[in-house]
Amino acid sequence: MPRDATARCPSKPAGITVVGIDVGGERKGFHAVALRDGNYYGHLPNKEVQAKEVQALLQWCRDIGARVIAVDAPCGWSKDGRARPAERELMGKRIWCFSTPTKEMARNHPTKYFDWMQRGEKLYKELKRDFPLCQELPRPHEKCCFETFPHAITWQLQGGRAEASLKRKQRRDLLVQAGVDLAELTNIDFVDAALCALTAYRAATGGKCESFGEADTGLIIVPAQPKP
User: How many domains in the chain?
Assistant: First the structure.
């Protein structure tokens, strides 16, 4: 069952930098957006730094002083070929999501469909050296990384009204409502990365979040739905 946490930090101290990452295949690479104190702070790829390789992305996170990193990619594999518990719980709330395969199924897929998930695995492996993977809901100011999912973020913040056909508008609208400057978010990958960063900022500053699943196959952490 989803677990939630009420805000445990009454104030939001200045200087908190967070990063959201959208994971793509080898050709597309990673898209990352940083927020500082809830405001747009930077993105990758940019004119100076590309984001095809994990090490370049990780170094950028270190250089900007990131504290919490939220990633749109599975942080664990299925153990039996069925959807992970986190995914089953989301689908139980009518939130559509991918079903993560076993590691062997992903590796042996004839069209390499799951290559982006394998790149996500490499990313988490390196991130965890500096940003421990959350085994439970993160505490305010804790240095960590976790898995999240833009469609579920949208669903939660929209009160269950996330529509795939409207995803560009709905997701951009949520960022505008949060005060995030969209000028540099020129495609849906940057928008999704920014939504992940918004969730990271909420977690970093004690905002109310929910987690789905269990630590063994991976938690998915998203904002809690606002009260009516």
Answer: 1
Identify the helix (H) or strand (E) that includes residue 201.
Answer: helix 188-204
Task: Provide the domain limits for residue 153.
Answer: 3-222
- CB atoms near residue 147 (< 10 Å): 25
Spans of the chain below 70 pLDDT? 1-13, 228
Q: Name 73's Cβ contacts closer than 8 Å, sequence gap at least 6.
A: 21, 23, 116, 117, 119, 120, 121, 123, 124, 147
Query: Residue 60's domain is classified under what CATH number?
Result: 3.30.420.10
Q: Is the peptide bond before 101 cis (omega within 30 degrees of 0)?
A: no
Tokens of 122: 């490499």
Model pTM score: 0.93
